[in-house]
Design brief:
- The complex is a heterodimer.
- By secondary structure, chain A is an all-alpha fold.
- Chain A has 2 helices and no strands.
- Chain A is rod-shaped.
- Chain A starts with 6 loop residues before the first helix and ends in a 6-residue tail after the last helix.
- Chain B is an alpha+beta fold.
- Chain B is 30% helix and 28% strand.
- In chain B, the strands form 4 sheets. Chain B has a 6-stranded antiparallel barrel, surrounded by 4 helices. A 6-stranded mixed beta sheet of chain B has the order 13-14-19-20-21-22.
- The longest helix of chain B has 26 residues.
- Chain B starts with a strand and ends in a 6-residue tail after the last helix.
- Classes of the chains: A mainly alpha, B alpha+beta.
- Chains A and B meet through helix 1 and helix 2 of A and helix 6, helix 8, strand 9, helix 9 and strand 12 of B.
């Protein structure tokens, strides 16, 4: 069974990870997240041409 | 003594004979209608055994349409309808009479499947239809968030059926969009307390502005997206449109099935005959992502109880040849989640529970209530229950999803998706240290406060957590984003759906796994300098949750 880590141990481990490239990884992932959510917003916008369909519903 | 009702053993012949007899001019073509074919099969599936024919039924919706349109015809159309009730139990006239006299609603209620109002018109006789949906089973879990109890008074017997009303378009006062709107507004009239317009009122309000061609009545031409939006505004709601089309192209020029078929347009000159494999893969990926966007939107909005209108272009498979038909609108009323693993969305490959949606249940006025629309490859839906001569399969390509929203629901889905995706990527980055062993799956839904409190009461949370959550002050509408590991929720974020677009949104973090949430919180607090500002309220919610009662 894995040893239960204290808050201090987790924080120390995390600070080390941030310093050793974690910060860059988070920034890279944030850029990817932004691309995804921008893509969602762009893609789900109603296209103007569909508002004036020559044949209605 | 002649009673104003008949009790019949349910059969195909009896249903056909009754509908033909009730149509104007006793039209035999009524029996061959796809809606009647579907109705028969649907009632047989529900185990219908008995049909009660309630003669002389005045239907408010038909009366409004009658007063506005049919009464002015030279031909004397009747204004009184007939209501057919269906029971999954054999009963005779004597037993029904005895139940009426004894006020014994229970004798019918346990087996009551619902009713269909038959309109005295020549062909489009299927009026307000309130039938139970297909039951949910272990093999096929089905959810119908839009159904509500519908009270039925049968000669003093107080019956009830959980349903959402359906009716077919009559092509006079309503086209398919009007019928879809009528169903949709039924769902919102109770949720948001607005008046329920009849089909003729819907068509009138939709065509009051911006109609530059065609005429209001007969409404064979249908409604475009802007007119659908106008009809929603007329009852005081806000139309929210979501684009879900993957391939830009013009609609075909015919929406009548009976009219001549239009084959797919030829490829423009100069364009290569076949796509390159790379293009083809790119298109398929694009279509899959568009389909996922539709699923995310439906799964998010439908569970608040709002039926959404799906506007689509239809194509028929006729002996292997794809023939383009017209535009079509249906009202989405339910869905089913399969057990297929989630497909990641976008470059971040965020997992949404909605990806497991494998079919929708829709009120399709060309077929019937709760008909099945199956998700197919290539951002297509197959209308499983559609039937027409020579057509092997009907496919629908989504164009727009229209959601009628209460004006206070201001935060759109895209803002919730933005927050979810950013948090998902953050948690994926810190997963090793925070102790997240698998990728989280996100379940995003719009929810009313009352429904949220019902969910909390029925949850496995501890009494202390329940009391804390049930008594806290929250807005009337919330977005709820639940993050789960396989088989267990980890936490849920409650966001204020009524907040300003520039607001902080996050109201509360509910911890389902407090230990894991605390570990996440330690890591988030340390990385807030490198995270975007949009995540600050979420980081604070994780921090604040540490002092709340443990689940």
């Amino acid at each position: 069974m894995a040893k239960k880590r204290s808050q201090e141990e987790i924080e120390a481990e995390f600070k080390l990870w941030l310093a050793q490239g974690g910060t860059v990884e988070i920034q890279t992932r944030m850029a990817r997240a932004k691309a995804t959510s921008d893509g969602f917003a762009r893609s789900t916008r109603v296209r103007t041409e569909t508002l004036y369909e020559p044949v209605a519903f | 003594m002649t009673l104003p009702f008949d009790v019949e053993t349910f059969s195909k012949e009896k249903l056909h004979a009754t509908l033909i007899a009730l149509s104007h001019g006793k039209n035999p073509a009524v029996a061959g209608k796809p809606q009647v074919r579907f109705l028969l099969g649907y009632l047989e599936t529900l185990g219908c055994r008995t049909m009660i024919v309630e003669r002389g039924y005045t239907d408010r919706n038909f009366l409004e349409d009658y007063a506005a349109y049919y009464v002015r015809c030279f031909e004397p159309y009747d204004r009184v309808c007939t209501r057919l009730h269906f029971l999954a139990k054999e009963m005779d006239g004597k037993a029904v009479s005895a139940a009426i006299v004894a006020d014994d609603a229970k004798a019918l209620q346990d087996h009551y499947l619902g009713f269909v109002v038959v309109k005295p018109l020549p062909l489009t006789v299927i009026g307000r239809t309130c039938l139970r949906p297909y039951p949910s089973t272990e093999e096929r879990p089905r959810s119908y968030p839009t159904v509500q109890p519908q009270a039925v008074d049968l000669y003093g017997l107080k019956l009830s059926v959980d349903t959402l009303p359906f009716q077919e378009q009559d092509r006079e006062v309503a086209a398919c969009a009007s019928s879809a709107l009528w169903t949709m507004l039924h769902s919102t009239s109770r949720l948001f307390q607005h008046a329920m317009p009849s089909p003729v009122e819907i068509t009138k309000s939709a065509t009051a502005h911006a109609r530059v061609d065609g005429r209001t009545f007969p409404n064979g031409g249908g409604l475009n997206t802007l007119q659908i939006a106008d009809a929603i505004r007329s009852v005081g709601l806000e139309p929210f449109g979501i684009g879900v089309t993957s391939v830009p192209r013009l609609a075909v020029q015919s929406d009548e099935y009976s009219e001549s078929a239009h084959s797919l347009p030829e490829r423009p000159p100069g364009e290569p005959e076949n796509e390159t494999p790379a293009q083809s893969v790119e298109d398929a990926e694009r279509a899959a992502q568009m389909q996922l966007e539709l699923k995310i939107a439906v799964h998010a909005y439908l569970r608040s109880g709002i039926a959404c209108a799906l506007l689509a272009r239809t194509t028929d498979d006729v002996g292997g040849e794809l023939v383009k038909r017209g535009n079509h609108a249906v009202a989405i009323t339910g869905y089913s989640l399969g057990d297929k693993p989630s497909l990641g969305y976008g470059t971040s490959e965020t997992l949404f529970a909605a990806a497991r949606l494998d079919r929708l249940y829709v009120h399709d006025d060309q077929t019937g209530p709760f008909t099945r629309f199956l998700f197919e490859d290539g951002n297509m839906l197959a209308a499983e229950d559609f039937s027409a001569p020579d057509v092997d399969r009907r496919l629908a390509e989504p164009v727009n999803l229209v959601v009628p929203l209460y004006h206070k629901i201001r935060i759109p889905l895209r803002q919730v998706v933005e927050l979810t995706v950013a948090l998902d990527e953050t948690l994926e980055a810190i997963s090793g240290i925070a102790g997240l062993k698998d990728r989280l799956e996100w379940d995003v839904q719009l929810i009313g406060l009352e429904a949220l409190r019902d969910n909390i009461s029925a949850s496995n949370l501890t009494s202390a957590v329940k009391l804390d959550l049930l008594t806290m002050s929250l807005p009337r509408f919330l977005w709820r984003a639940t993050a789960s590991l396989p088989g267990k929720p980890v936490f849920e974020l409650l966001l204020d759906a009524t907040d300003l677009l520039q607001g902080k949104l996050v109201r509360r973090l509910v911890r389902h796994d407090p230990k894991l949430c605390d570990q996440i919180s330690y890591c988030l607090s340390l990385s807030k300098e490198v995270l975007p500002d949009t995540l600050r309220p979420t980081i604070k919610a994780f921090y604040d949750a540490r002092s709340t009662p443990a689940a």
